[in-house]
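Lab notes, practical 5.
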Amino acid sequence: MKRVVCLMMVLIVICATMISASAVDYGCNVATKSKAVYLENLDTGAVILDKSSTEKMYPASTTKIMTYAIVADNVEDFDNTMVDINEAVFKDLDPESTVMGLSKHVGEKYSIRDLLYGMMLPSGNDAALVLADYVGGGNISAFVEKMNAKAKELGCTGTNFVNPHGLHDPNHYTTAKDLATIAKYAISKPDFMTITGTVSYTPERFDQPITNTNYMMINNADTAKYYYPNVKGIKTGYTDEAGKCLVTTGSKDGLTYLIVCLGADYSFEEDINYAMLDSCDLYDWVFENMAQRTVYSASEVVKTVHVNYGKGDDKVSLMPQGELTALLPKNYDQSLVKVEVECNDSIDAPVTKGQSVGTVTVKYDDMTVGTTEAVASKDIALDKAKVFWNNLGDWFKKNFILIAIIAILILVLIIVFVVISSAKKKQRERESSRRRYRY
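Output from the prediction step:
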């Protein structure tokens, strides 16, 4: 029986995933070389493109997004919290991996801020280990437990971490969708976008600045094919097993998008980062094809409802609270746009103009793309006379049985009174008749 229940639950989860992934088709036809892609509008939560977003992937150094979040969860003061650089923490680190350069500063103290820059810009695995050791209380495994606990708390279902830096381990994996969830959480942490959006930074006692590995933010001859002025942050990643990985945000015309690209093949002979090229193509597409569209103006009526006890009027029109906009393709299919108003069929007076009565929701291909309040278009005063007569009627309805019993009792009393009165009258007539015959 337990096996049957488990199988049913698995099938439900799979079906729900399939439905959500295909809930809306925005027509994004960008061909990507990344094996898994997730593109979301951060203003509305609309998923513009979902390619294998729930498949198991290796995250490489994009792991450090979660590492940053856990550090930020546990350290309040980035500038005045100082950490000892102990060589034992990173002595077994692969010398071929990317580092901040802390081996030259053993025995010194560095601020959490310097270490975060060192972890996120040049993708320093040494900085990630030092931070994890500090926050984990001298136990990096304890830090990793915090990473997995946070992933579970955020609703990630396809993620498991075994280290804070992302160097390959077959049991260290995530999904594009989970990584987007983690990135959105990290964005809410102090200074995350400032640090990851910085091109270069010079930590204390460093002779040279450390540089961001996200070439989409760097405009020079070597990075020109990747440079995208609208992009800011977040993290790159690469191992032979993971391929090229990249998480970025991009903003234009008041809209911000998050793109996760995982598993792009890479060869040193080609020296082309297809995760970055994919991201460039995807930003080109969304900025060219997606826009905020006005579905209803603030003066358009979306529904009319009955008003109980209204003085002079028993109906009120509802309108959106301000202009109702939705993120839609610039050449969207209008037949796929539906507006739903959720409110009671009637409301009680008094009603005030602008009073929230319900919600107006815009759906595109059955996916919610915009919502606002439904508000009353005018004032309607309370008619106290209507309230009195309504309350009186309600009282009679609620006390119908009691009233019926009282009425019956009164009727019985009347009948008894009439019968008694009639009997007394007849008795008086008989007595009067006897007196006449006696004289």
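Observations recorded by the TA: The CA atoms of residues 181 and 401 lie 61 Å apart. The radius of gyration is 36 Å.
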